[in-house]
Every structure is written in C-alpha cells, then in structure tokens.
Write a structure and sequence with these properties.
Chain lengths: 150, 261
C-alpha cells in the first residue's frame, strides 16, 4: 500500500511538472505599460519590445502594449515621426497588439482615427481600443500576463 | 524465591506490572514501595520487570510504547483509514491539478487564437467560453494595486485620474473591485496631509468607494524623520504598513494585479 502510494505520488508529480513545462514552452504572455515619456523614451520602449521578441521567438509570445494617459503620445508622435511609425509597423507584423485607453481618448478629446497612428477603431476583441487602460492591464495580469513597465 | 503465581504472595504479578508501568493508585504505590525496601526478592523481581519494559521500549519506538500503555488496539484499523484518506487526497489533488492544467492550456490556446486575425468569430466564441468562466470564478472580484513612487505633480494628477477612472469603470459595469493605492519613497507625498494637493478629492473617493484603500510605507516615514527631521502627518483613513515593497510582493502573491502609475 505504501509503495503504491509513493509510486502514485511520483507519477502525479512528474505529470504535473511536464504539463507545466509544456504550457510554459507554448506561450509567454506579457503586457507592456506605457503612460508617459517622450519620443526618445518611446523609441527605447519599442526597441525593448523588439529585443524581447527576438529573445523568446515571436511564435511563443503574446505581447501587448497598453497605453493610457500621456502614453498615447507614442501614437500621436508616430503620426509625424517616421522612425517610430515604421518600428510600430514592424512590431505589429511580429504580432504585437497596441491597445489604446478609451477614457483617455475622451478626456483628451482625441480622435483615434485622425490623431493617432494606425489604430483599429473596431469594437470588440479585434479592435485596438479598450474601455479602460488600467483595467485592461489588471485583466491581462489575471489571465497570466507578466507586467513590464519600461 | 517464591512462585510468582502463589496466591499467598502479598503482591500479584499483575500488580507488579502495573507498578512498573506506573499505573497504580498512589496509596497502593506507597504500600508496595515500603515492601520493596524490606523484601529483597520482591525488589529483584521489580528490577527484572523494569529491565524488560526498557528493552521493549528500546525495541519499539515511542508510538508502540504509547499504544501498549494506552492499551488501545485500534491501531491497525486507524492506519488503514489514514491510508485511505491519503489515497483519496492524492487522487483529488491529481484530478484538480489535471483540470487546472487543462483549463490553463485552453486559456493559452484562446489567447493565441486572439492574435490570429482570420480565426472565425464562431471559433473564437466557442474557445472563449471556458476562459470567461475561469476568469469570472477564479478572479472575482478583480483586485488591483496602484503603486505610486513619484511626487511629480503632473504624474500625481494623472494617477488620480487613472484611479478615479478605474473605480468608475468597474462601477459602470456593476462589477465589484478592490483597489489599493500603495505609496512609498517620494510617492508618499500623495498621502501627507501637509503636502498633498488632493486632501478633499481623496476624502471624497474614500467616502464614495468602500473598496478603496490608501497605504503608506512605515520605512519611508522613518526615513523622513531620520534624514529630514520631518514627522509626516497622514490623511485620515490612511493605512500604515511595515514596508511598501513587501506589501507589493504579498499582494502579487495573493493574485492582485500590479500597476505602476
């Protein structure tokens, strides 16, 4: 009986470890938080993200950038700053989602289509606008996303 | 030496055994002790019994000695009951683990599908279902720490807007939420009665939302006193904890979401 129990426990432990490793291998989930900074800092953040993708591999990574408050400057600057814009394009091709806070749009009286660079204004999960940037970060963390504030 | 079973003996073998095992009533014990002093044969017999008892204790570790003294015979059935309980517990644990891993994998699948633009809406809806229930049960209500480390007025102003927007967002959705504002370092300025520009706004928020708390770091308070000679007065209702950083760690370990504002 004791031996049987020991074997049972061992098998369970091995199974759990392997299941865990499998899940961890399959996908890294990360949310980057941007709520301020100037163009130079924004460029540095985008480079950070690019390096992150290169280190992990784009197929294993679900990476989202959530912007609110003055973080929306990132997409405002990209309307004029070609270097920022092309970096954003590059990251989007690698699967990065750029999410914009609706509360901030309202407070700053911004038009996402006109004032910000390449925002999908469609409602629902495929769109780029989230009701509250801060709440979105909390929701993603509850879904297992790691939080990084560059 | 007298025969131990001799009925004329002053003390029976059973009586002596009880003495060795310290199970005699006090007056019987003292009567026997008196006899032991005068009766050499008796004392040798007791000595022998003690030796046997010690040998038995040596051979079987403590639990069996307890069992002997207690005179209970339920040990065997007790063991199998605990083994049964252990088996059940292991099985339950294994099943829970399996279920948990299964749902996690489903969750991950869902997230990766989110990113594939041409996934059909129907497919996403189906795959999304278990995730929604998982999120609703395991993380209800949402709990969020806002970490304040700076005293820059522009940043504080934005932080206050974020906080209020967040509380309003969850209220509008009729969803309960818990929010804790943790301040340390320069961020403590937000909660210092002599410095903060937000005395009234914070009081209003505290009144409006009972799911909101403001936390100040004791280490920072101590440092202010030591380095600048300031005894900081805090706003009413502010909670003081030992260390802001430790609180961030505790809360994240408890499953709170962390946001630095």
């Amino acid at each position: 009986m004791k031996k049987f129990l020991a074997i049972l426990t061992a098998v369970l432990a091995i199974g759990a470890l392997q299941g865990n490793a499998l899940a961890a291998d399959k996908q890294h989930k990360v949310v980057y938080h941007v709520n301020g900074g100037d163009e130079k800092q924004h460029m540095a953040t985008l480079r950070n993200i690019d390096n992150h993708i290169n280190a992990v591999g784009k197929d294993k990574l679900d990476l989202r950038v959530v912007m609110h408050g003055n973080g929306l400057d990132l997409l405002q600057s990209a309307q004029k700053n070609k270097a920022l814009a092309s970096k954003i394009d590059e990251l989007k091709l690698k699967g990065v989602g750029f999410k914009v806070c609706e509360n901030t749009l309202r407070a700053k009286k911004l038009d996402a289509k006109k004032d910000l660079y390449d925002v999908n204004v469609k409602k629902g999960p495929e769109g780029d606008i989230v009701p509250s940037g801060v709440a979105e970060i909390a929701i993603l963390q509850n879904k297992g996303f790691a939080y990084i504030k560059p | 030496m007298k025969d131990p079973d001799d009925p004329r003996r002053e003390f029976s073998a059973e009586h002596l055994n009880a003495f060795v095992d310290e199970q005699l009533a006090p007056e019987e014990k003292s009567r026997l002790l008196l006899s032991l002093n005068s009766n050499e044969a008796l004392s040798r017999e007791v000595c022998e019994l003690r030796k046997v008892r010690d040998l038995v204790r040596l051979a079987y570790p403590e639990p069996s000695a307890v069992g002997l003294r207690d005179g209970r015979h339920g040990r065997r059935s007790g063991f199998s009951a605990s083994a049964l309980a252990a088996t059940l517990a292991t099985l339950t644990f294994g099943m829970t683990l399996g279920w948990f891993l299964h749902t996690r994998v489903a969750d991950i699948d869902q997230v990766s599908q989110d990113n594939i633009p041409d996934a059909t809406a129907a497919g996403r809806h189906l795959a999304g279902k278990p995730v929604v229930t998982l999120a609703a049960t395991a993380h209800n209500p949402p709990r969020i720490i806002l970490h304040v480390t700076e005293s820059d007025p522009k940043q504080l102003a934005e932080m206050m807007n974020d906080l209020e927007g967040l509380l309003r967002h969850y209220k509008a959705q009729n969803q309960s939420v818990r929010v804790e504002v943790v301040t340390n370092g320069d961020g403590l300025a937000l909660l210092r009665a002599d410095v903060t520009p937000y005395t009234r706004r914070i009081a209003r928020l505290q009144e409006q939302y009972d799911n909101l708390s403001f936390v100040a770091c004791q280490n920072t308070l101590d440092r202010l006193t030591k380095e600048k000679g300031i005894t900081a007065r805090l706003l009413p209702g502010v909670v003081i904890i030992d260390s802001g950083v430790a609180q961030l760690m505790r809360r994240q370990n408890q499953g709170w979401a962390y946001i630095q504002v």
